[in-house]
Amino acid sequence: MPVGTRGAVKSVTHRDLVDLGAEIILGNTYHLYLRPGDGLIARAGGLHRFMGWDRPILTDSGGYQIFSLADRRRISDDGAEFRSHLDGSLHMLTPESAAEIQLQLGSDIAMVLDECIATPADQDITRMAMERSIRWARRARARWRQILEDPGASGVLVTNTGQAQFGIIQGGTHPALRTESAQATIEIGFEAYAIGGLSVGEPPNVMYEVVAQTAAQLPDLAPRYLMGSGLPDDLVECVALGVDLFDCVLPTRNARNGQLLTRHGPLSIKNAQYAEDPLPPDPECGCYTCRHFSRAYLRHLYVAGEMTAATLNTVHNLYFYLDTMKRIREAITFGSFEQLRLEFRQTFSRRPQH
Amino acid sequence: MPVGTRGAVKSVTHRDLVDLGAEIILGNTYHLYLRPGDGLIARAGGLHRFMGWDRPILTDSGGYQIFSLADRRRISDDGAEFRSHLDGSLHMLTPESAAEIQLQLGSDIAMVLDECIATPADQDITRMAMERSIRWARRARARWRQILEDPGASGVLVTNTGQAQFGIIQGGTHPALRTESAQATIEIGFEAYAIGGLSVGEPPNVMYEVVAQTAAQLPDLAPRYLMGSGLPDDLVECVALGVDLFDCVLPTRNARNGQLLTRHGPLSIKNAQYAEDPLPPDPECGCYTCRHFSRAYLRHLYVAGEMTAATLNTVHNLYFYLDTMKRIREAITFGSFEQLRLEFRQTFSRRPQH
């Protein structure tokens, strides 16, 4: 899922996203709640109508952004009190209000509010946050059900009665806590389950172990969503471990910083070595950028500070991610997934290419 | 002609431009000469190949930007000595080198170097600059012919042997000087002629008078290009006076500042009154932006500082300009141009709409 924080995937248009084959995008509840406001969006008919995007949207709960505010937030069992990064105004997000906001936004998939913690964290802190996340998940699910059973009486302007709500498994890197979290969350019962609290600095092999152990405990038929991951090789490895859905800001954010992905690894387009390079970023790539533009031109646009650099680089990186997922799906269909995985391990490196 | 200063029309892709029906764009010699350099572009096969744009390109001479450098340039009969706005390095642009650079860029239409002056200017200063521009035009034409007669011997890497070169009529707002300039420039002989030195702050009716008087003296069969104009009503009025070609940064620059054009006049999308407005910027407009997005969404993108705001606003404004020119051409074909002109006068206002 390309990330469309504030109702737009940065530096590309919806037309670009449809061309790229994006089937779903992510919106950030924290940002949209503060500006333009979920009330305004609901009155416009919901986020789909407001932003003119008719494919699925997943919204996060807003929790992750609030926990990132550090000294501008205070967490209690009630919820998270925080000050807006825009104007310093005081707000309170609870498991209930996070569900209400997302029903007003009318996303197709809503996430429950969970407590994110700084990592690495010891087992006691991780347990406390995990247990609070379960209590919050219960409240979020109850409020969400209550609203959908009688939207008229809820005071909430529900713009998508077909919304699904996903639970989130926490527990850090502690297998016993992950197991407890998975069991309790499945017991509450959600349309599907996400694995949270990863991609926060732990080494890849640790992440893969936690994903493997957690995914194995989730219902076979419900999609599994690994939140906030990851690098291209993470996609391949985590699909192997049973993950279906990913979101990550890296393809779009790195594009704006001049980092383009290739099958062999990232390429930093600002390097002087590309000043007269007539090749496209990735000669094997079929995206609009690679079919029309050279590294020399893309470097020029980047160095000159042209906005088009961000657009063309983003188109390429999103294509790379979405194409990787497409190749994975095809390989699974044709029984050649292990071969693709091996190939990826042999050719893709996280280190910059020269 | 949309303006593509540094080898890109700001905030849109070539794909957007082709969708919009842009048949020609403008590139700035001053900017491209400094970065990435006309030598690099020539080695890449010329500006078309470098930037991946296969429709016509007009390049200016670089003069206008240099004259805008104020205390960073010194003009003599030889040419213009200036310091780069990028790194302060010293450069010299002459009528000959401006022709050479543009042949290396390989644009389809090159402009001669002319002397631009601060306005309003008295008749003596205007005469001196006009006369120097004629001397420069003679040298520019001679060097340009010489190179094209024997590119191999010129030391210039000509990337477009089919280039046309346009002369420029100067003379400020003084009819006698305009006449002298026109006669001398036509005597040198160019593929076509431009009217320079306007849209520099004079009132519209003064500009129209000069355009009328100058255009009347130009050859019937050569296209006339009014440089750096203008507002939408200028297009209609100046076509009536005999102008064929225009370039202007307003549609793109104003778009980035949140000003959208409508048939009734400009609309400032940042205004709070549009926060919940479900209408497109111009309900009568057929552009991608108006077909898909509301004023409320565009205002949100602008206020949030999303790059997509610039893209969507630029698409709209360029459509407005190109559509205006298209409607003018159709009206001329069908004999209804005077009716269109009258309609434009009655409905279009330069004042912001509410």
What's the helix and strand layout?
The structure is a homodimer of 354-residue chains.
Chain A: H1 14-19, E1 25-27, H2 29-34, H3 38-43, H4 47-51, E2 57-59, H5 63-67, E3 73-75, E4 80-83, E5 90-93, H6 95-105, E6 109-111, H7 123-149, H8 151-154, E7 164-169, H9 175-188, E8 192-195, H10 204-215, E9 224-226, H11 232-240, E10 245-246, H12 250-256, E11 259-262, E12 265-268, H13 288-292, H14 295-304, H15 307-333, H16 337-347
Parallel strand pairs in A: 1-2, 2-6, 6-7, 7-8, 8-9, 9-10
Antiparallel strand pairs in A: 3-4, 4-5, 11-12
Helix pairs in contact in A: 6-7, 7-9, 11-15, 11-16, 12-15, 14-15, 15-16
Question: Which spans of chain A of ≥5 residues are poorly predicted at pLDDT below 50?
Answer: none
Number of H/I helices of chain A: 16
Radius of gyration of chain A: 21 Å
Q: If interface size is counted as residues with C-beta under 8 Å from the partner's C-beta, which chains form the largest one?
A: A-B, 38 and 38 residues
Mean model confidence by pLDDT of chain A: 96
Question: Main β-sheet of chain A: number of strands, strand sense, barrel status?
Answer: 7 strands, parallel
**Oligomeric state of the chains in view:** homodimer
Question: Which structural class matches the secondary elements of chain A?
Answer: alpha/beta
In which range does the helix fraction of chain A lie?
Answer: 40-55%
Distance between the termini of chain A: 29 Å
Order of helices and strands of chain A: HEHHHEHEEEHEHHEHEHEHEHEEHHHH
Q: Give the total of beta strands of chain A.
A: 12
